[in-house]
What we know:
By secondary structure, the chain is an alpha+beta fold. It folds into 2 domains: about 5-80 and about 190-200, Glutaredoxin; about 90-185, Up-down Bundle (Glutathione S-transferase Yfyf (Class Pi), Chain A, domain 2), CATH 1.20.1050. The chain contains 8 helices and 4 strands. A 4-stranded mixed beta sheet has the order 2-1-3-4, with helices on one face. Helix 1 packs across helix 8, helix 3 packs antiparallel against helix 6 and helix 4 runs antiparallel to helix 5. The chain is globular and about 40 Å long. About 35% of the residues are buried.
Amino acid sequence: MSIVLYHHPFTRAANVVWMLEEVGAPYELRFTDVMKGAHKAPEIVALNPMGKLPVLTDGDAVVTESGAIALYLADRYAYGRLAPKVDDPARGTYLRWSFFAPSVIEPGAMAKGAGWTYKDSQAGWGGYDTMLATMEQAVTGRDYVLGNTFSMADVVFGGTLRYMLMFKMVDPRPAFTAYAERLAARPALQRAEQTNMKIAAEHGLKTG
């Protein structure tokens, strides 16, 4: 087993467990107690100077940033299955929505929640309403962002949307909730959620 994920169930590392379950590669979870500042320990900072989770190591490879971890795992362990091949036209759509989540949805929702004042044309994520309409278009009239084919882009895009629906950071539009329900039915996601809940319970972390 070469894959190690530095993990805490209340961080973005929780979604990486779903990624790992989808690709089907064996992995080890290394609990990192962020509540006690363990993510700032020299061992973690040596891997990620930001001192943040998730951090994934795979042999000599070190990958941080959940979106990058997703694309790395899909290309390395599920190429052609969870990641369209480079000569497949679907690769462009796959990359588009994989990057849309961290580049647009996360800062856009944060800006809305914090009441930031800015010009839409000057922010990389644009306007909040336009962002929601674009997200809605991505999952309307299709099962997944690539149509009928599930991909790692759904773990990134869908994982972000599920989180924001859970914490009421975006409107629960019918297209969003239906998409989230399809994702929730995936066995890999169910296994990941059980793993995260088990680890939370083992460390006395309240999940509700």
